[in-house]
Protein backbone atom coordinates (compact mmCIF):
# COMPACT_ATOMS: atom_id res chain seq x y z
CA UNK A 1 0.00 0.00 0.00
CA UNK A 2 2.83 2.36 0.91
CA UNK A 3 4.50 1.66 -2.44
CA UNK A 4 1.27 2.52 -4.25
CA UNK A 5 1.03 5.84 -2.38
CA UNK A 6 4.63 6.66 -3.24
CA UNK A 7 4.02 5.82 -6.89
CA UNK A 8 0.90 8.00 -6.96
CA UNK A 9 2.79 10.88 -5.38
CA UNK A 10 5.58 10.53 -7.93
CA UNK A 11 3.09 10.59 -10.79
CA UNK A 12 1.45 13.73 -9.40
CA UNK A 13 4.83 15.40 -9.05
CA UNK A 14 5.74 14.49 -12.63
CA UNK A 15 2.41 15.83 -13.91
CA UNK A 16 2.93 19.09 -12.01
CA UNK A 17 6.43 19.44 -13.45
CA UNK A 18 5.18 18.81 -16.99
CA UNK A 19 2.40 21.37 -16.57
CA UNK A 20 4.86 23.94 -15.20
CA UNK A 21 7.18 23.42 -18.18
CA UNK A 22 4.32 23.78 -20.67
CA UNK A 23 3.09 26.90 -18.84
CA UNK A 24 6.54 28.46 -19.05
CA UNK A 25 7.04 27.69 -22.76
CA UNK A 26 3.65 29.20 -23.62
CA UNK A 27 4.49 32.48 -22.04
CA UNK A 28 4.55 31.80 -18.32
CA UNK A 29 6.75 33.72 -15.93
CA UNK A 30 5.04 36.36 -13.84
CA UNK A 31 1.73 36.13 -15.70
CA UNK A 32 1.18 33.25 -18.16
CA UNK A 33 -2.04 34.83 -19.49
CA UNK A 34 -0.33 38.11 -20.41
CA UNK A 35 -0.02 38.94 -24.08
CA UNK A 36 2.26 41.54 -25.57
CA UNK A 37 0.68 43.97 -28.01
CA UNK A 38 2.77 45.56 -30.73
CA UNK A 39 1.97 47.81 -33.69
CA UNK A 40 3.92 47.62 -36.96
CA UNK A 41 2.85 50.33 -39.44
CA UNK A 42 -0.42 50.68 -37.49
CA UNK A 43 -1.20 46.96 -37.76
CA UNK A 44 -1.70 45.45 -34.30
CA UNK A 45 -0.37 42.08 -33.17
CA UNK A 46 -0.83 40.20 -29.89
CA UNK A 47 1.31 37.25 -28.79
CA UNK A 48 2.69 35.47 -25.70
CA UNK A 49 6.07 36.77 -24.48
CA UNK A 50 7.76 33.43 -25.21
CA UNK A 51 7.69 34.20 -28.94
CA UNK A 52 9.64 37.49 -28.75
CA UNK A 53 13.28 37.29 -29.82
CA UNK A 54 14.50 40.84 -29.23
CA UNK A 55 13.98 43.68 -26.74
CA UNK A 56 11.60 45.73 -28.91
CA UNK A 57 9.36 42.72 -29.51
CA UNK A 58 9.35 41.95 -25.77
CA UNK A 59 8.38 45.54 -24.94
CA UNK A 60 5.66 45.89 -27.58
CA UNK A 61 4.02 49.18 -28.52
CA UNK A 62 4.72 50.93 -31.83
CA UNK A 63 7.87 49.31 -33.26
CA UNK A 64 9.67 49.31 -36.62
CA UNK A 65 9.74 45.52 -36.90
CA UNK A 66 8.42 42.53 -35.01
CA UNK A 67 10.92 39.69 -34.47
CA UNK A 68 9.53 36.35 -33.31
CA UNK A 69 10.78 32.78 -32.97
CA UNK A 70 8.50 29.76 -33.40
CA UNK A 71 8.98 26.02 -33.75
CA UNK A 72 8.18 23.92 -36.81
CA UNK A 73 5.86 22.12 -37.29
CA UNK A 74 3.37 23.39 -34.70
CA UNK A 75 4.51 27.04 -34.48
CA UNK A 76 4.51 26.96 -30.69
CA UNK A 77 7.21 28.98 -28.88
CA UNK A 78 10.55 27.46 -29.79
CA UNK A 79 12.48 25.36 -27.29
CA UNK A 80 15.54 23.39 -28.42
CA UNK A 81 14.68 19.72 -28.72
CA UNK A 82 16.03 16.65 -30.47
CA UNK A 83 14.19 16.36 -33.81
CA UNK A 84 12.06 13.28 -34.34
CA UNK A 85 13.17 11.21 -37.32
CA UNK A 86 9.71 11.17 -38.93
CA UNK A 87 8.90 14.85 -38.35
CA UNK A 88 11.86 17.26 -38.47
CA UNK A 89 11.60 20.11 -36.01
CA UNK A 90 13.47 23.36 -35.92
CA UNK A 91 13.38 27.07 -35.22
CA UNK A 92 11.55 29.39 -37.62
CA UNK A 93 12.64 33.04 -37.41
CA UNK A 94 9.80 35.38 -38.39
CA UNK A 95 10.30 39.10 -38.96
CA UNK A 96 7.40 41.43 -39.78
CA UNK A 97 8.10 44.91 -41.13
CA UNK A 98 6.42 47.56 -43.33
CA UNK A 99 6.36 46.53 -46.98
CA UNK A 100 9.11 47.92 -49.15
CA UNK A 101 8.69 49.63 -52.52
CA UNK A 102 9.90 46.63 -54.47
CA UNK A 103 8.07 43.82 -56.22
CA UNK A 104 5.61 41.70 -54.31
CA UNK A 105 7.72 38.73 -53.11
CA UNK A 106 5.40 36.36 -54.99
CA UNK A 107 6.52 38.00 -58.25
CA UNK A 108 10.26 37.99 -57.55
CA UNK A 109 11.18 34.49 -58.78
CA UNK A 110 9.67 35.16 -62.21
CA UNK A 111 10.35 38.87 -62.61
CA UNK A 112 13.50 39.61 -60.59
CA UNK A 113 15.55 36.50 -59.86
CA UNK A 114 14.98 35.11 -63.37
CA UNK A 115 17.40 37.72 -64.77
CA UNK A 116 20.25 36.29 -62.68
CA UNK A 117 19.67 32.56 -63.09
CA UNK A 118 21.73 30.02 -65.00
CA UNK A 119 19.90 27.96 -67.61
CA UNK A 120 19.99 24.59 -65.87
CA UNK A 121 17.51 23.31 -63.31
CA UNK A 122 17.41 20.29 -61.02
CA UNK A 123 14.85 18.43 -58.95
CA UNK A 124 14.84 19.49 -55.32
CA UNK A 125 13.33 18.38 -52.01
CA UNK A 126 9.56 18.23 -51.69
CA UNK A 127 9.03 18.67 -55.44
CA UNK A 128 10.79 22.04 -55.54
CA UNK A 129 12.93 23.03 -58.51
CA UNK A 130 16.52 24.11 -57.81
CA UNK A 131 18.01 26.96 -59.83
CA UNK A 132 21.54 28.38 -59.55
CA UNK A 133 22.44 32.03 -59.87
CA UNK A 134 24.99 33.36 -62.33
CA UNK A 135 28.54 33.90 -60.99
CA UNK A 136 29.09 37.58 -60.26
CA UNK A 137 25.39 38.30 -59.66
CA UNK A 138 23.99 39.70 -56.41
CA UNK A 139 22.89 36.19 -55.43
CA UNK A 140 25.87 34.13 -56.61
CA UNK A 141 26.37 32.51 -53.19
CA UNK A 142 22.78 31.27 -53.06
CA UNK A 143 20.49 28.73 -54.66
CA UNK A 144 16.87 29.35 -55.51
CA UNK A 145 14.24 26.73 -54.64
CA UNK A 146 10.96 27.28 -56.48
CA UNK A 147 7.55 25.67 -56.16
CA UNK A 148 6.34 25.03 -59.73
CA UNK A 149 5.45 26.65 -61.93
CA UNK A 150 6.88 30.09 -61.03
CA UNK A 151 7.35 30.15 -57.26
CA UNK A 152 4.33 32.32 -56.54
CA UNK A 153 3.12 30.04 -53.74
CA UNK A 154 6.58 29.43 -52.30
CA UNK A 155 10.25 30.03 -53.01
CA UNK A 156 13.37 30.04 -50.88
CA UNK A 157 16.83 31.47 -51.31
CA UNK A 158 19.38 29.33 -49.48
CA UNK A 159 23.13 29.74 -49.13
CA UNK A 160 25.07 27.36 -51.35
CA UNK A 161 27.03 26.26 -48.28
CA UNK A 162 23.94 26.06 -46.06
CA UNK A 163 24.26 23.83 -43.02
CA UNK A 164 21.39 21.37 -42.64
CA UNK A 165 20.29 22.67 -39.25
CA UNK A 166 21.14 26.38 -39.61
CA UNK A 167 18.54 28.99 -40.61
CA UNK A 168 20.22 29.65 -43.95
CA UNK A 169 17.06 29.74 -46.08
CA UNK A 170 14.85 32.78 -46.66
CA UNK A 171 11.24 32.99 -47.84
CA UNK A 172 9.23 36.21 -48.06
CA UNK A 173 5.53 36.88 -48.43
CA UNK A 174 3.45 40.04 -48.40
CA UNK A 175 0.21 40.69 -46.55
CA UNK A 176 -1.33 44.07 -47.25
CA UNK A 177 1.00 46.79 -46.01
CA UNK A 178 3.44 44.34 -44.40
CA UNK A 179 6.25 42.06 -45.57
CA UNK A 180 6.93 38.86 -43.65
CA UNK A 181 10.41 37.33 -43.68
CA UNK A 182 10.70 33.64 -42.74
CA UNK A 183 14.14 32.11 -42.09
CA UNK A 184 14.58 28.39 -41.53
CA UNK A 185 16.95 25.46 -41.98
CA UNK A 186 17.35 23.69 -45.35
CA UNK A 187 16.17 20.47 -43.68
CA UNK A 188 12.64 21.94 -43.71
CA UNK A 189 12.54 22.43 -47.50
CA UNK A 190 11.20 18.89 -47.85
CA UNK A 191 8.17 20.04 -45.85
CA UNK A 192 7.65 23.40 -47.53
CA UNK A 193 3.81 23.11 -47.86
CA UNK A 194 3.46 22.67 -44.10
CA UNK A 195 6.02 25.40 -43.47
CA UNK A 196 4.26 27.88 -45.76
CA UNK A 197 0.75 27.18 -44.47
CA UNK A 198 1.99 27.18 -40.87
CA UNK A 199 3.77 30.53 -41.23
CA UNK A 200 0.73 32.14 -42.87
CA UNK A 201 -1.57 30.68 -40.21
CA UNK A 202 0.70 31.91 -37.44
CA UNK A 203 0.75 35.41 -38.96
CA UNK A 204 -3.05 35.40 -39.19
CA UNK A 205 -3.30 34.32 -35.54
CA UNK A 206 -1.03 37.17 -34.47
CA UNK A 207 -3.29 39.69 -36.22
CA UNK A 208 -6.66 38.21 -35.32
CA UNK A 209 -6.12 38.04 -31.55
CA UNK A 210 -6.55 34.26 -31.59
CA UNK A 211 -3.90 33.96 -28.89
CA UNK A 212 -6.16 36.00 -26.59
CA UNK A 213 -8.97 33.44 -26.40
CA UNK A 214 -9.59 32.85 -22.74
CA UNK A 215 -6.87 35.28 -21.69
CA UNK A 216 -6.98 39.08 -21.29
CA UNK A 217 -4.60 41.15 -23.42
CA UNK A 218 -2.19 43.52 -21.75
CA UNK A 219 -1.76 46.78 -23.58
CA UNK A 220 1.58 48.54 -23.63
**Major sheet: order of its strands?**
5-4-6-12-11-10-9-8-7
Topology pattern, helix = H, strand = E: HEEHEEEEHEEEEEEH
Structural category:
alpha+beta
Number of beta-strand segments? 12
**Helix content range of the residues, please?**
10-25%
Number of helices: 4
Please report the distance between the alpha carbons of the first and last residues.
54 Å
Q: Can you tell me the residue ranges where pLDDT is under 50 for at least 5 consecutive residues?
A: 1-30, 214-220
Radius of gyration: 21 Å
Average predicted confidence as pLDDT: 82
- What percentage of amino acids are in beta strands? 25-35%
Largest sheet: 9 strands, antiparallel
Indicate the overall shape. Answer: globular
Describe how the helices and strands are arranged.
Elements: H1 2-25, E1 36-40, E2 43-47, H2 55-59, E3 61-62, E4 66-72, E5 76-77, E6 90-98, H3 108-111, E7 117-123, E8 129-133, E9 142-146, E10 155-159, E11 169-175, E12 178-184, H4 192-208
Parallel strand pairs: 1-3
Antiparallel strand pairs: 1-2, 4-5, 4-6, 6-12, 7-8, 8-9, 9-10, 10-11, 11-12
Key structural traits:
220 residues, globular, 4 helices, 3-stranded mixed β-sheet, disordered C terminus, 9-stranded antiparallel β-sheet, alpha+beta, disordered N terminus
Please give a structural write-up:
Residues about 1-30 and about 215-220 have low confidence and may be disordered. It is globular, with a radius of gyration of 21 Å. It has helices at about 1-25, 55-60, 110, 190-210, and strands spanning about 35-40, 45, 60, 65-70, 75, 90-100, 115-125, 130-135, 140-145, 155-160, 170-175, 180-185. Strand 7 (about 115-125) and strand 8 form a beta hairpin. It is an alpha+beta fold. The protein is built from four helices and twelve strands. The strands form two sheets. It has a nine-stranded antiparallel β-sheet, with helices on one face.
